[in-house]
Task: structure prediction
Amino acid sequence: MKQTIGTFQLDAPSRWERKKAETRERIGRAAMGLISQRGLAATSVEEITRAADVAKGTFFNYFPSKEHIFVIFVETQHGKLRQAVAEAEQGRRSTYVVLRDLFLALAEEPGSSRDLAAALVSALLGRGTVREIAAEGMAEGRRLLARIFSLGQERGEVRSDADPRIMGLAFQEALFGALVVWAIQPEKKLRTRLSASFEAYWRGIAAGKGASK
Result:
């Protein structure tokens, strides 16, 4: 099926492709719901398939193991990062605004509940598949972030004496740290915690006129 956008023709997803995507997403939502309640280790594939209302064989059509559920989470985060890169390349908004909004957007899924945030942290710090998926995902995230920082340096908004890759790593550390602290100290709202963390981070990377936001 072809879909015309302007002068371009794009292949629109078929009904079968849409159904596959919907099933994969449903399995992912069911899995994350269970993992947030009892953790990854205590969640079985059988429980996930029951919650998603799919056969066990269907699960393995999409994921080699329950640990590979986290690929969906990584894909979602990468989508947000690519959108931020596109916005930075357009140059309609300042680097500060692009990074601030990205910081908040990346926290949406893990920050949907403290139980889920804690379960994700526990799974990511473990050994094996989840850790490997996270490491690869974060490396790609830093590559995308480096593009945003490079553009910010070209525009004089980000300090020029810092390596974009190191600033990307520090961005991830600030975000991860804010989520962990929020998960174990529930007296503050997540957005309050994130905003404070990002502002402190921005002050460390802003160039003279970039600090004006």
Observations:
- The domain at 69-212 is CATH 1.10.357.10 (Tetracycline Repressor; domain 2).
- The chain has two domains: 2-63, 69-212.
- The radius of gyration is 19 Å.
- DSSP finds nine helices and two strands in the chain.
